Every structure is written in C-alpha cells, then in structure tokens.
Records
---
Amino acid sequence: MIPVMLMGTVLSGKRYSLFEYGCAGAIAGGVALFAGAGGKSGGGGGHSIPTKRLAAPNAPLGYALCLLNLLLDGYTNAAQDELHSQFKETPPLWTMAWMNAWCALYNGIYLFGKLPGSGWSSSAGARFFASLSGSAEARRDVALFCACGAVGQLFIFYTIARFGSLTNTIITTTRKFFNILLSVLWLGTPLDLTQWAAVALVFSGLGASSVAKAKGGKGGKQKRH
C-alpha cells in the first residue's frame, strides 16, 4: 500500500492525507509484524521463517528484489489510475486483456526463448508441457488454477477502474492477511502477544479507513496537485 501511494504521488501528483498514510501504515505494519513474528524456527537466532527465506542465501539480493517488486507494483498501479483518469471510457476488460497479453509474451520468452550466439535456451516450457501430457490430474489442476485466476482478475480490474488502485491494494493486502490468520486458526496454532498486537493493528487501520470513507471525511478523498 505504501509504494502504491508514493508512486501515485510522484507520477500522478496525487496527495494523500496523514490520516490515510497512518491507516496504510497500520495495515502494512500489522501484516509485516504478524508474518515476522510467526513461524519462528529453532537454532536460527529467533528469526521468522519468512525472514529467513528472504535473506537466504543472499540477503542483499533478496531484499533488493523485494524492493524492486514493490516499486514496480506501485508504478503499475499508478499508471493504471492515470490511464483510467485520462480515458474514462476505457473498459476494465481492455486493460485486463493487454496486461495478460504482455505477461504471455514475457513468460513465453522465458519458457521457450533462445539467445542467439550464446548457446542459451530455455527448456522450462518443454518440461512443463511434458509433465502435463503425462498427468490428467495436473492438467485439471492447471486448468482450474487458470480459470480461478481469470475470474479473480475480472474483479481486480473492475475494482481498479471503479474505485482506484489503492482500494484494490487494501483489499488484496487484507485478503492475504485473512488467509494467514484463517490458516493459523484452522490449524490451531496459538498466537503470541506480538501477533495479537499485529491483528489489532490491521483491524484498527481497516476500521478507521472504512469509517472515514463512509463519512466522506478527510480519509476518503484523494487530491491532485
């Protein structure tokens, strides 16, 4: 949420209030605190499993890639907001179709690409289709995964076009948090005080943001320079 707001400010001239930054900080901080506090593994200095995976085997590279991902995601959301602001008649399905077309191109290069003169070629695509051809269950699971992803994207791109990328980011961030929380409760894993504090932070940020938007107060508007 924070990179989306920052990139929107830099690229599109949007202005968010301190209240909105506070709500976003509470939600993002709560999710990070919950993930960082959970899954502690023995013999590793008390670090959480997600932190260990991000830092191993190359911590600077791991955190740099994570930061790059956040910046690119923030830019993408800001660009989509600007597109729908300038061209209000642009339908969400148009944006979704072109986004997936470029994704298919990039993934196609990765799966089947060759680099002339270097001897490099990717065998990932051939191995993928070979594994599918030998398993009806795998083909069913991949088809179901693609269908669920396509239906989910319909809601995502409609939300971006209708309510803006920040609202969509709030939804997706809290959805991930609820997935984690539900799995913890489903498996009967006890929460420590730090994780309960993280839960309180997330719900506080969500509640404050929702109430402000419902009342049309200072937390519900975005201004431009």
---
Amino acid sequence: MEAKPQRHQALDWRRCSVTLTSRCNLFCRMCHVVRSEPASLTRAQAFSIVDFAAQRGFRCIILNGGEPTILPYFWDLLDRLGETRLEVELLTNAYRLTDDQIGRLARQPNLLVHVSVDGVGAVHDAIRAKGSFEATDRSVRRLLDAGGRVSITTTVQRSNFRAMIEVYEWFKACRLAWHAFNFADPFWGDLELIPTEDLDEALGILRTICERDRAVRGRVTLSEDTLRNFSLWLRYPLLKLHPGRGCTIPLRHVAVGETGVVRPCWHFGWHTGPERNINTRPLDAIVDEPAYAAEVHRGIGRGGCPGCSAMCYQWDEDFRTKLTRPAGVLRLRRAVLHAKEYLRLRHPWVFNAVRKGAAPLHR
C-alpha cells in the first residue's frame, strides 16, 4: 500500500521584508547591520520586489537597512509604492531628512514611518552620533505636523536603559501610532546587551512606563507577557522562546537581504546558496519552486528549526500567542528548555552530567 502524501499548510504570504542596503549615515553602537560588508540592492532589483509583492497580494512591505533613504533610487521607489495597494513600513533614523523629503513622506499613502530614537539629547547622541537627536526629533515633529504616520522604536541597551522614562515622556504628547521598546538582540552577540545584574532594574523601569501609558493613551507596545519574555530571553540567551515546529512566520513572510538572498525568515540560515539569490534567479522563480515550499515545511516540521529568540515578528497574532502564552506540549517544552538553561548557567557541573547521552530537545 502506498503511503499517503503528507499534507502541508499552503504558503499564505502577507509581509515582505526588504533590506535595501547595509550602508548607513550613522554607526550605532548596538547595530550588527552596519558591521557587515557594505552591500545594496540595485534599483532594478528593488523595483522588481515591489512589483512581485503587489502582484502576489502581499498586504505589507517593510523597507529597512542600514538607512534606506540614502539610496539614490529610494524616493522613486517610494513613488512606485504609492501606485500600489501595499501598506508600506519604513525603518529610518530620520537623520538629515530635508524639508522636501519630510513632505514627501507625509504625503505618501499607506506609509508608516518607524523612527529609531534611543534616548533624549546626549543619551541618543552617544549611541548614534553627535547632534543626531536634535535632527531626528525635528524630523519626527515635522512629519507629524505634516500629517504623516509615525512610530518610535527605542532599543533598550546597557548605555541607555536608565533613560527610558525620559524618552517616553519626551514623546508622550505626540500623535504617534505607537512607541515600541525592544532590547538589543543577543542573537547578534554582545552588542550593548544589558548586564544580567541590571536586568531587574531595566524591567522595572519599563513596567513604570506601562503603568504611566495605560493612564494616558495606551500606545506603548509593552505588556507583562512581553516583559516576561524579555526577561527569559536576556537571562538565558540560548533559550528558544518559541518552537520552530509549527511556526507561522515562514508561511506568511518573504525576506530579501541586501546581498539578494531570499529567506522565508531571517533565521533560516540554510537559504543562502545561489539558487536562493535574486542576483542569479528571479524572485518569483525562487519562491514558486516546490523545493522552496518543501524547505519551509521541513523547517517548521518535526526535527527542523529548534526555534529562536526573535522578538521582531509581533505583527503575527498566531506567532505572538505561541511566543508569549505557550500551551500544552509547547508550554512543557519551554519549561524543559528553561530548566536546561538555568542548569547550564547556574550549575554547569549538573548540566554536563545530565547532558551526557541526552537527545536534542527539539527532536
């Protein structure tokens, strides 16, 4: 009797993330991108990705870097996006934007501008560049005055975590879409990570912000669930906060890096060969081939991706629920991983004894 073919959930693309360039006009202390080899997508590649996303029914396209606005073709690309129905999210430091550019951003339909602000005055300048806070703050306020949609993203790190309340209060009265607070990512190594001994103080500061924000407007993207996950994530860097098995992100997301590599998730490390690069093959040919879908399903199946500590995909409700409120077997799996990390860090001799002969936890 022939085995029944395995049924897989269909790919359901919703968001396309594009790193247009690793080049930037700043050199931020916690940023891993600017420490990579300088690279950018060509004009033709960027426009072809927009056409692909529009034709395939994606809901949203995210433009990031580096600093996307420094590319010569960026503003033409933005005009092309204005001709589509795509929601557009731009990640920018808003540094050195001219009045004309601010006006163009404000008039752009379906655009949300995510501006990076890591402190007020000298705190921000010490992380990014001298004088950068004044320029960025001016851009934010002029964008809002011109009717643009703006959010603030603040990266919490060792050099600024005690200034978080100040940056929240600075923008509290602004008409922001939201104010996000994210920690420097341990996935990229020890770039400005908060020391473990200061973590409780940092989390307490963020809880104070949550309390203040609930009484005012409720636009801060923090909750007790996310703070609990931040705590686990930073105390136990190897802890996988969500299981790779059944992860929804690769089914709904296509990412294109500045070197042309195509991945369903930024953490799918095996999608790096020439057969997965738009420098050698068209994007639609890459994602339409059966091998691409097969690799996605293998990655989110049993024995595939063990999960990651990413906190950057809060847009997906199913992923967010799995990340912050695991249930059943998933909850048990996290408890086992948590115990494993606790032993590894606090009682290494016990960890090493238990580890001998143990099977991988994600298999």
